[in-house]
Amino acid sequence: MKKIILSSSILLCLAFIQPIKAQTFVSTEPSNRNVVLEEYTGITCQFCPGGHKVANQLAAANPGKVIIVNIHQGVYANAVPDYRTQWGDALAAQAGLTGYPSGTVNRHIFSGSVIALDREKWITSATQILSSSSCVNVAAKSELDWGKRQLKITVEAYYTENSNSSTNLLNVAILQENVIGPQIVNSSVAYPEMQVGNLYRHNHMLRDLVTGQWGETISETTEGSFFTKTYTYDIPYNIGNIFLNPKDITVAVFIAENRKEIITGAISSITEVYAPESDLLMSNVIQAEHNTCDDEVRAKVCLQNISSQNINSYTLKYVVDGVENTDTIYNVTGRNVASGMCDTITLPAIRSIANQRKNLTVTVIKANNKDLDLISSKQKTIAVTKDTTVTTAGALTIKIWQDRYGSETSWKLFDSEGEIITSGGPYTNLGANGTQLHTIEKDTLASGCYYFQIDDTYGDGINGGAGAGKYEIWIGENKIFSSDGKFGYGESKYFKVTGDIGINTVNRQIGNLEIYPNPVKDKMTVSFTLDHPNSVIVSIYDVLGKEVMALNKASYGEGIQNVNINTQQLNNGIYIVKVQTQEGVISKKILINK
Length: 594
What we know:
Number of strands: 49
Oligomer: single chain
Helix content: under 10%
Number of helices: 3
Distance between the termini: 37 Å
């Protein structure tokens, strides 16, 4: 039988049990450690679902013994929607990770000098943790007050042995389950259980740290020591523009010997307290979701029942730019909204004019035909802006003048499906204050809606005193955007391209693009049709818009053409094949799976 021998650093606690002091619910019996798996992930990381699967399998095999914390961080999380938090970068920096997905198991060093582990090592590492003794037990109970939208979290810790450290760090983390959003998935790590149509169910997502970046100090860590504290957490409606539904909150607590060694952890129980039957308030959140490329703005309203009985009907009053009229009353009937559940509806469209900002205020004035007190009834106001530039099809040129601190700047261009067309940065820092021009030229864009996002990690844009940086976006000969670079942490722009030339379209010069086999193993055939002799370039791009393979320009005649391509040099993943003539371009996605 193979024996598992733990290093002295993993044997954290030595001593004997003493009588407990004022303990109420935490166990006083010696126990083994629980696993805290911090998983670093991102929605454009195609292999990250493989990490999600390993983590979930580990938790299922060890009920109540494994706490998963999914941290969206790094280049693969810098996307739309943005699931990152203010906490992720510091955690990743100390982990020493070099790729994604990566994870830390109790932030323990199992070998070498870094705590980050590939997903293949999570289970064996967790087995070692689970078989080692813990010097402390930790438990938590939480109360969710729907009327106040507030959590009261009581944590208790009891030391059955002496800790190796005279002080420990208590961490209280807010996790969110059931976040439905995009996720790129490589077929080799497909996770169909998490698929929701074309979207993905993100669980265990880190949203906040109640006790700060590294936790709150526990100053008594000897045998028999007892610690307790109650935290009050006001639940925000949104974190990073992502709606935080109290129903989907998990509270995780864990105690660390230092920043790099977690002793053990636990998941808090949650008791829900609703408003009385006589108070049929509904907590409402306005989600700023609207089509940026049409002439109307449509706001979605998420109404959450915080009362103790079902709600079947309600009446909303919404006001646009402070102008009330009879059209602002909206009745909703035939619903069956249980306590704590959300009901999401789309309000009638608001006509909008390009670059005009409108404020929309929504108030719940009735529920179950009962008038509500407008003072106590929740209401929300959001700004909806139709800020979309429309331009005809043409070649794309992006000009970025970075400032001295180019390492702080990055940007991406997304299509209407949220996929990255092209991106840039971070850049190399300059030796002195000044600017450096980066010019990016791309093929003719497809007709559709596009979204440009530029970010600065320091928060002073690219024109904050270290060089007067700026950026411009051109379509053909038209400069559709220019910025003075004073955008703080970042800004975004939408624009609409009209015309018939572009991705997955057929124009009169080139069409009928087919690629087979798809998925591709090591060879593929690209087939297309020309309606007259032409010069053609076939290129392959990765999902970040970087060209990874290009064939020499060749002349082809009229009719169906077949080009055979060897893809052995390309790694597994999703790519875009483009076929380009001087009149236009047509493209299609492929999956390479060797």
